[in-house]
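Annual report, structural modelling task.

Input specification for the zinc ion complex:
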Amino acid sequence: MTPGRKAKKPAGGARLLNHTTKEGLSMSTVAYQCPCCGAPLEYGAQSGKLECRACSNSYELDAIEAMHASEETGGIQFDMPTESFGAQEAAQMQAYICQGCGAELMTEETTTATQCPYCGSPTILPERIEGGVKPELVIPFTVSKEAAQQEFETYFKGKKLLPNVFLNSRNRIAEMRRLYVPYWLFDCSASGSATYDAQKRRVRREGDWEITETEHYLVSRSGAMDFSAIPVDGSEKLDNKITESLEPYDMSAAVAFAPAVLAGALADHADVKSADCEARARERVQSSMEQALRSTVTGYSTVNTRRQSFHAEGGKVTPVLMPVWLITTVKEGTTYTFAINGQTGKLTCDVPADGKKSFLWGGGVFAGVFALLCALMAAAGMLAGGTLLIAAIIALIAGVITVSVLTGQLKQAAHAGGAGDYIVKDSFRLSGRKDYYLHTTRTRRKIEKKPDSQPGK
Ligand SMILES: [Zn+2]
Ligand SMILES: [Zn+2]
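The model returned the following structure:
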């Protein structure tokens, strides 16, 4: 029994009683506390409700039960694929190990690998194909090397906050390498439930008093939705931020895996443990479920989540290879990655904004806007302490907006929010929807009469 979080929670929470009360109700052995005042609730045979003698509020059984429902830590289980390469396929393939960064790579037998796609090292030694999960599907490259190079070239134009050390990175354009990145695609049917503490607030005026009436509600929602092909990258060498920023891929263009598909490119082995990838898929599913359930709670002034739980069934995982053009560049001991989606041409990177340039741009815009506003106010004869402060705030906002717009141009990699792109269309079913009114609280505040305020209203 976990008592929920309450504003006025009396010590002790709900506790077990040793005697049974009414008609064998499932919750009758538990003493519940009044959500309004904390006094113990009693079952009223006449009303069929739980009643509070102290404050004379009464509550529906379902509402109080929902409020105290135990926390379910439901997980999402996925069946991980285990199919490995057959003897014939293994014979048509060649594995390599990079001596520079340790990447384990593979391609078909006639492709000669000369360079590691991750670190550019030329010392990549042949290995035998053994173990490893066999990819089921591959999305072939549709963005040509020339098109990817053009995308990369264009990137360097007009990027005001790009650190100077990157300006000559475009010299590495010839070193753009094609890589098939391993992803796991997660399918599942997720269901979830959530309860919320919600309030409707009304403010009215009675004479010299401002009265605030707050109606308290317990809101519960449950629903389900299906997800299809949420991608999580299985490569240890690529940050999830990079691979999530390359999304989405169009899976309808995928073909069945065959060694020949890899001709002319290297593919990375899926080396991130499936459990780690599962955790990321689960986060994204939960985040989408949370958003979907929460979006059905409307009409309240405030809504706070009290409890939520999620489950998934039919979890299925498909190993796939996605096409990525990669350029890595080492600056001051750190490796930076530029990546281009080999199907859509979308570019992302982990290049940071230049601190000094950000400061100069932000500061410059601030000074310019502030000077302009001051000049305008001086001309209008409005220059005073208060108006100066307002001008400074406006100028500051302009500076911050400028820096964030310029930073946005850098196309920095970021984590994807939920799994919104992978919800099966119209699959969201709201199975439970209850809004229980609990009680109303009132507060009042004396309205201060300002000497110069306008009378009436
Ligand atoms: Zn009470
Ligand atoms: Zn390497």
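The pocket of zinc ion (ligand 2) is lined by residues 98, 100-101, 103, 116, 118-119, 121 (CB under 6 Å).
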